[in-house]
């Protein structure tokens, strides 16, 4: 009995021992895992710190290398921090405190106050352009974009701004403005000049005409046929001369662009033209329906159509004349066409006919200015003009007007 | 009944003056023509209140005081601004027309090339102003 009990106890003890051993083994395994995990964690942490450091060095690099001046200032305008570009921009190399509001040029002060007020009220301002006076008293044009900096608790700490030196751009802008003004002036002068010249040239023609008709009148009984004929020739020549002067003036005015464009309903315009132009009975004018309304100067657009239609009328030799006006809408422009069944234009003259005073058929009502005016106006609207023609069959003029 | 007008022609061109005179005699009109060859002369002429004309025919292109300046001067003068002033010119310059219109013109006539056309235009202008009851004002 005793032996038996001992045996049982021994076995129990052995079981316990092996169980503990197993537990110890599991424990060991677990703690090894734990160690590994904590090591991994440590590594991740290190990496994060490294990353963080890297980022902030990158950021400070950005501040250093940014092409524009960067400043941090408090709400009273004192600059707390600035990068090298800012120092260069403000010509400020000492440690004394600069005040951004005080840098602003006297003439722009009132205007700048508005912007700083806006900064406080809305949290930012963009593209504030003004003159500043740097520490070395030179004046520069700058453009500032600024925004407020807040703390975690949403308290306003100050503001940061990017200051861009736009002196060069501003200088170019001013130059451009001046050049434009000069151009406008000389354009006006030219216009004025054309008027004066045409006036001064026409006056003597008028006088000559009056003198001729008086001589004729006063000597109606004593002049013979030939002399009278010659006097008529003088008068005709004077008329031609006057026409030429008028046309030169018209041509020089055609290139004069005004900025006031209006909506021009081409349906109305062409209907009106059809009514007012002298169209012989044997010529039919067909106008396409639903023409567009374009933004342009009405008189100039009218002149294009008027000159082209008159041109077609002039050169129609058929018994039943036909003029057709169409419009083709393209993506960026309108393409108009005016076709006729007239005498046509030989290919070799297709470019020449747009030159001033180039009239292929010399007759009294053609001074060769009409088409050159059309071309000038079309070019003014950044369009093109060309033609398609068959001798004896007819001609189609095409032109485009930018939308 | 049409009445005779006292006309002041402000014109520096000798032949233009001859044209006006010849036109009036050709049309057998009894209007009186006084001529002034520039703005200064015209202003001098107008100083004599007894000679105040019924209408002024004014050329725009003149030396010294030009037509528009002359128009401005008389339209600013209380004694003279009532006189209808008709512009006779070659210039169809939009700017000039607008300026004259603003200042207060009574007509803008373009001088045509042909003398016959000129006679027709002047006849129309003068007959219009002859039927106006100017003297009673």
From TrEMBL, chain B:
SMART domains: REC. Keywords: Phosphoprotein. The keyword Protein biosynthesis does not apply. The modification 4-aspartylphosphate is found at residue 59. It comes from the Bacteria. Residues 6-126 form the Response regulatory domain. It holds the Pfam family Response_reg. Gene3D superfamilies: 3.40.50.2300. PANTHER family: RESPONSE REGULATOR RCP1, RESPONSE REGULATOR RCP1-RELATED. This is Response regulator.
